[in-house]
Amino acid sequence: MAKKKIFVVEDEEDLLELLTFNLSREGFEVNSAQDGEEAARAIPRALPDLILLDLMLPGLDGLEVCRALKKNSKTAGIPIVMVTAKGEESDIVAGLELGADDYITKPFSMKILIARLRALLRRKEERAVDKDALIRIHDIVIDPGRHEVLVRGQKVEFTHTELRILHFLAGRPGWVMTRQQIVDAVRGDDYAVTDRSVDVQMVGIRKKLGDCADCIETVRGVGYRFKE
Question: Which residue in 67, 76, 80, 90 is deepest, having the highest Cβ count within 10 Å?
Answer without folding.
Answer: 80
